[in-house]
Amino acid sequence: MPTYILSYFGEPQFANQDEGKAYQSKWMEWENSLGENFGELFPMKPAKTVSNDDVSDASMDNRLSGFATLTADSMDNAIALVQTCPHLEYGTINVSEKWEM
Known about the structure:
four-stranded antiparallel β-sheet; flat; alpha+beta; two-stranded antiparallel ribbon; Alpha-Beta Plaits
């Protein structure tokens, strides 16, 4: 079964801890609904941008906030599973099939 990489852009901003806990609960419910299809989640702190001349804070506008792995029968099936993710309330998710080299 193909593996897909889910790239999460943007991030939630919560007014208080209760909102954060409610989001975390939605996230865990979603992840558990995927069962063994959901692989590993890699949340990411803000990045640094490195060039030949400089190192600076990366743009916070629609930043890459994490990625995860997912197995599914097809791209269409992976997209259908992702369309129920609570992250979509706060940002976007790119779905890419892992390329076996």
